[in-house]
User: Fold these one by one.
Assistant:
Number 1:
Amino acid sequence: MPKIVFVTGNKHKISEVRAILGDSATIEPIGLDLAEIQGTVEEITLAKCRVAAEEIGGPVLVEDSGLEMHALGGLPGPYVKAFVDAVGNPGLWKMIEPFDDKTAEAVCTFAYSAGPGSEPVLFQGRLLGYIVPARGISAFGWEPIFEVDGETLAEMNMDKKNGLSHRFKALLKFREWVQDTGLP
């Protein structure tokens, strides 16, 4: 079973990653304060992964998530945390409320690098849903306003959420890649 150094200080992400990957990998979390460039979620994740590999001096896994509201041309995208911090879920709802199109995509992108100088590999998962007035309580900022199949991610039990989420879809790709490449 490969040991994966996962760069995050978010204990909730660590729990989800461990639950989703199960016994296919051992997750060793490490907190680093990585500066985030401005760009797409893919550009941000790649840049974070390159820096993390240099700082760790070895293989790393990093993650970045976003929320793309279709009526807003993909905003707030990878900047959703800043939006939630500034206006909260009620503010995000107010931004989308006037539009007929309430669809959105939750996007999770992981990047793995074998170490310094090694180009990271991306694994992305997307989940289509709707933006609704907040329901439920979650450790992840915008999950109370993101509805899939009649429930917000915040209302779902953990097993259901971890079996369909954007993070699940990205980690499934990563897990398959790990099995195919035979990481030590």
Number 2:
Amino acid sequence: MNNKIYTDKAPAAIGPYSQAVQAGNILYISGMIPVDPATNTMAGPTIVEQASQIMRNIDAVLKEAGYTVDDVVKTTCFLADMNDFAKFNEVYADFFTSKPARSCVAVKQLPKGALAEVETLAIKA
């Protein structure tokens, strides 16, 4: 059975998808962009501000589903500009201290002009 996860502490989906889906002990979190759910606006203009908001959004969904950041086993990160890689990594490393597996790629464009997007996979032991 799949359980749809929703929290108002993370941005609502901007398309026909769920914030996250739990299938058994696996949590699939859709790509999170740096939208502040309180204002429904993008976080500040820098990669640090935007990456920080993304991590807060991921944390909110993890908590809603009863998971922690330590349950995350894989992320896929999308950057609009690889010149932001080092600054993005600083924020990422502070949040994902357990160092899950990761892919990080540059893309041409992200929704709402975001500088980054992160999708997450977590497993509850």
